Amino acid sequence: MTLSIHHIAINTRDPAPIASIYETAVQFKALESASNPRWLAAPNGFIALYPTALPTRDTEHRVCDPGIGHFCIQSGDSDGTWNTLTCHGITFSAQPTGLGTGVLYAYGRDLESNLIEVEGVSNEAPTTPPWMAHVALVSSDLERLADFYVKLIGRPCHREGTFSNPAFKAITGFDDVKVKAKWIMADNLIFEMWQYLNPETRGVRLAGIDEPGYRHVGFACDNLEAEVERIAAVGIATVKSQPLEGLPCVTGTDPDGNRFLIVEATSGTHPLALSSLAAPNFVSDRLSQNL
What is the pLDDT of residues 113-129, one digit of tens each? Predict the structure, then answer.
């Protein structure tokens, strides 16, 4: 058994303008909901926007800081996606920059300074609708975090390495960047983990449940009871949570204190089932073709 990545959850002072960016700029679909959070559907995953009354952070969460770092939107039209997001309120530190991989990269911030990444891939048609590519966590102990998520997701890392490149400065804003990274291919999205060696990632970030910013990563399965038993057998504890839009779920924390949620939502007729999405296997299919 393995887990899919179901959604990335963000606490926001005002979900409406954040949602509007993704609805209008990259055509993610707004879903009707009788309660909070506000849901958006990309072709292969969901975004959940939770309202919070707490004030916005005094300092920006940097790319090298520990915690849930960002999610990534990819497209075959890097400049077009970058320009459209810019026009709709995303503030980028630089234009998309290449690292010699056939991909252009840019980090931006939404209206409440939440970090997102935009990537343009050269081997995809510009007319393909933008999709979610990965969710990224940053840790001061990459090996420990990766070991946890290998057990949780149920798949080994498919790629890892240590990287430095002068072009990183344009993307991150830091000089002499050096990072270690590991990637796990979940069933529908890539789970990405970073540890910055320079500037050094330090400590952990224990954010309150209602603190503005990234709230949790949501995973999906087709048999919640069986998944809870599987991960309990490898030492991962969860607690039963309030149903998510009527779907059973459990919650837990990783070794860095980041929250995760597992919901039974891979198939069926529920609007939050992964099978209801336009292209739930888009990223995993692209990865298998490029291996």
Answer: 999 999 999 889 999 99
